[in-house]
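Why do we care about 3D structure at all? Because function follows from shape, and shape follows, mostly, from sequence. That is the central idea of this module. The next example makes it concrete: a single protein chain, its amino acid sequence, and then its structure expressed as tokens.
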Amino acid sequence: MTVARPDEVRRFNRSSLLRLLHTGGPATRAALAAELGLNRSTIKMLVDGLAEDGVVEEKVPRLARGAGRPSLLVLPQPQAAVVLAVDVQVEHAGIALVGFGGQILGRNSWNLRGRQRDPDEVITHVAESAALLAADLDLRPVAAGVCVPGVVRRADGLVHTAANLSWGEVALGQRLRAVLDLPVVVGNDAEFGALAEHVRGAGRGSDDAVFVSADVGVGGGLIAQGALLRGSAGYLGEIGHMTVRPGGRICHCGNEGCWETEVGEAALCRALGMPEHGPRGAIVAELRELHGDWEIHLREYLDWLTLGLVNVVNILGPELVVLGDLFTALPDGAVTRVRDDVRRRSMVSRAMGGVRIEKSSLGADLKLLGAAEAAFENVLAML
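And the structure:
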């Protein structure tokens, strides 16, 4: 039997403590000891070491009340480790510097139109914008996470295809590593959305969850047994391209009747009687104006959304489905109807007593936070 050396045990305990503070936020030493199953003297040694390194700080809670001396809170120091998060979408791109603990320290964004969508232009703009933001904040990122709406090879960040960007075989990870001089992890945007929900959103505490994202296209990210499910080579989650309507509309993937053609942005515009390529803000505004009339406009659209979710739940058996991006603008009553219909029509949902279906609450920062978490995966082990 192999016995771990004391230094290996210390590294493991330190890494576990860092992960807990990063995802859970400030906590007392007693709470940390209870959560990690370590004795108080071990926690004291770890916290003292991290404080000496400037990674954490201990403070009296601002709202401390009652008799006796209040317990000190161990607070993660955001500047102790900073990563660059990059979110490339179809119509715009954004970057952020995110500190230890998940705090966004600064950000920038820009529109992608015409030639600005070209991979060379995107890479150049990301590098220049990141350098300016880091200089303005006097921070230096130690790693980068990048999400793209496409099929991405996890090993090296090759974007095999991102049809809505008109990208194919783009060595995005390799090229960004060269210009940023940083370790870079690239992933599908819905995959990183699932990661953000699992760490900081509706999926906290759920070991098996599916994140379903509706943008121009439709994608999915899967959390299985508490970790991202990545599949062979990282190619996973293209749930928007399951066939739900044989003989239906031609999809850009070459198939016909894909779920994406029935519940993506263009389909939602058709349901609302709007031009298919209208501005995103106008779609959201129209949905908010529906009030009690949502069923008149969205009945068929919700039927297709329900059909796809029944398939997803029956195949994957999650305890939770989180709806992101445009789905978050759907009226609450519409989401309730979908939830009830999925429970009625899905064998798995009925067996589980009803799969939870909720809208994401992380807003526009969702995928930036997911990209940051992907970058932090290796950083925390070395901090």
